[in-house]
Amino acid sequence: MIEDRVEAGRLLAAALQRYRDCPGGLILAIPRGGVVVGCEISVLLRLPLDVLLTRKIGAPGNPELAIGALTETGYLYLNEELLTTYPALARVSERERLEQEREIDRRRKQYRSGRPLPSLEGRPVILVDDGTATGATYLASVQALRASRVGRLIAALPVAPPETARLISHRVDDCVVLETPDPFYAVGQHYVNFRQVDDEEVLRCLAESWRPPEPEPAATETP
User: How is the chain split into domains, by residue range?
Assistant: First the structure.
């Protein structure tokens, strides 16, 4: 069991020490809970933190069952096996996609004042969340980053089912998952404290994350 998201971030940072002060390195956290984890990693590894806005598309009546996921880059991941079995979900997924687009736009304005993601091409990126079950949201994020031509892509997760962890590990360059319990029921069951995270806490974490020092002004010669 992990105490809370702060402890999860500290444990992940310890396992990711080889990336401390990595040139050009960036931590991207999936809101909301992933940002609390990412903040701790950011401070301890001395790497800047930003958010990657990805929203799960849930099934009607069972929002925890992911039909797919949508990222702010426009990448859409769909569970084709589920949609083949239940074709009526395709119509639902389109309505849900539009709703999640609106929520992504709201969060972009709230968390980044509307600015887009920073340039990612060639950069080492550590992708962080507070855990994953089906992997839909996380895998959509991985695919979006691959499409953005990041450099080395590192997965960092406190907890995931064994099969999901294996699936993710095949799609990234390095994968750190602290716990892979089996059986696995829900992410929150593997935390002592898994309280809800609100927008204010996300903004606080982004403000408290590590930032590179400002360059010193060039010395001016006196006549």
Answer: 5-53+115-208
| Of the options 3.10.580.10, 3.40.50.2020, 3.30.565.10, 3.40.50.720, the CATH number for the domain spanning 5-53+115-208 | 3.40.50.2020
The 3-class SS string of the chain reads CECCHHHHHHHHHHHCHHHCCCCCCEEEECCCHHHHHHHHHHHHHCCCEEECCEEEEEECCEEEEEEEEEECCCCEEECHHHHHHCCCHHHHHHHHHHHHHHHHHHHHHHHHCCCCCCCCCCCCEEEECCCCCCCHHHHHHHHHHHHCCCCCEEEEEEECCHHHHHHHHCCCCEEEEEECCCCCCCHHHHECCCCCCCHHHHHHHHHHCCCCCCCCCCCCCCC
Return d(Cα 14, Cα 69) in angstroms, integer. 30
**Token pair of 28, please?**
């991207």
Q: Which of 172, 115, 114, 184 is nearest to 141 (CA)?
A: 172
Sign of CA dihedral 206, 140, 194, 7: negative
Task: Report d(CA 18, CA 99) in Å as an integer.
Answer: 40
Does pTM top 0.85 for this prediction? Answer: yes
pLDDT in tens, 85-144: 666 666 666 777 888 999 999 999 999 999 999 999 999 999 999 999 888 899 999 999
